[in-house]
Amino acid sequence: MLDTVEAISSFNKNKSHILNSLSQLHDQNFEQAKSHISIFQNFVEKSESLLNNQHADNIFNEFYLLKVLCSLLISYISFWQKISKSEFSESWVKLQDAQDILRVIFRLSSTSRLPLLEIIEKQCGELEKLYPYNVFMSTGMVIKEVECNICGKSINSFDCEHIIGELYRGKMAQGRIKEIKELNHVALVEKPANKRCVVKYENDAKQFRLVKYLGGILNKRLLSPLAFSNVEYKTITLAKDELPQISRNAKCFCGSNKKYKKCCIYKETVEKQHVDIVGSPSIDAAKLNNSIKLTCEPVHSLGVTEGCNAPDS
Amino acid sequence: MTKSERMEIVDIEKDPDFQDFLNSNRKGIFCVPESSTNDNLLMADTFRFAKWVKQNEDKVEINVCKGDGYNDLRSSDIWLPLVYLASDISLPIYLSIVANYLYDYTRGALRHDEATVHLEAIYLDKKKNKLKKFTYSGPQKGLEKTVKKFDLNKFMQ
Questions:
Q1: What is the CATH number of domain A5-128?
Q2: For residue range A70-109, what is the model confidence (pLDDT) as tens digits?
Q3: How far is A119 from chain B (nearest CA, A)?
Q4: I need a surface site. Which of A167, A237, A274, B96 has the fewest CB within 10 A?
Q5: What is the pTM of this model?
Q6: How many CB pairs under 8 A join A and B?
Q7: What residue ranges do the domains of chain A occupy?
């Protein structure tokens, strides 16, 4: 992730705070985990303040990356904290924050990706599958004037040499919209620029049942945040006596929306949608620091089945 | 080519703007407003693309037509500007520049991100003296693969 001696030195001197933070996250001490990141960030900012005009642009750029790494870890920890506190709607926003920051880090890093970041990347992709969001709102607009945040010129001109998203001496070029000519539509799309634009559900809404299940096993210490691996959707066959008894006129277990008496009443087994939350046996932080290893309890295939009681309910 | 991909090269009728471009003896790539609307709007990322080409492909000239504004669709899709290609830039060269740009643009993509790319280019088929329009809409990863499979020479005849 880093190339310059200055940034690598700053990282190595203070990475114990990142490892302490991960250790606190493992134990679900979220505030302590965040405070270790804040300490790391303070050290990074202090080291950065010692840089002067003699230092090359890429050194400033790598200090920017270290600060962004702190933002990523804060978002990641906050995500798990929101899950633990059953703030599912807010957790989605933190999940998106973490992924947006990951994209910035991956784009701007000149060398290989930190194993820790690859774990978080994979987790984020899998965690999204637990949420009910498939369609997003996206605005379409006609923009007249966009100003560069670095030189103040119009970013839509060759007078400004900065390209949006690139780093210039530790500062990312961004366009500030000065004038919107027309906001012409809001569309429902599957692939928006911003996945935070969703229909907001209350945190106790049934749409969050899978995330709620995740929160349940998290709070019962059956899963550590760092040990979450992936989500598996499958169809399972259950003997009817494994399911709670329901009346003849109730909706059938199988999700057909028919009455039980007109659906599976005479069947001996029922097919149901099932979701497994799969944990990995260990997270090897040694890749980050050979001297420290975080080990999580093995967790395999804790699952929730539609219509069945989840352990947290 | 998958169902979500669309690539075609079609003959187009006379285009006075493109003719003006040819008569101006400009070189390289000229980014112009979208053809689908009459509002004279450029795509929001036009200058991002144009500046990237200027800074990374120093032998290629690129200019941008003045528009009345920028169409910002706030989508995760990548919308490249409609371009006119001068005689010194062939379609395969342009597509290779686009592939390099997209590689750079999507360097930070996460493994579950799937960017869809939209691009259009108008050029003169010198052999037949006909105007052609190239259109691609599909996954970014599929563009390079599809372009390789695509027998461009066949379409140039």
A1: 1.25.40
A2: 999 999 999 999 999 999 999 999 999 999 999 999 999 8
A3: 11
A4: A237
A5: 0.86
A6: 82
A7: 5-128, 136-189, 206-305
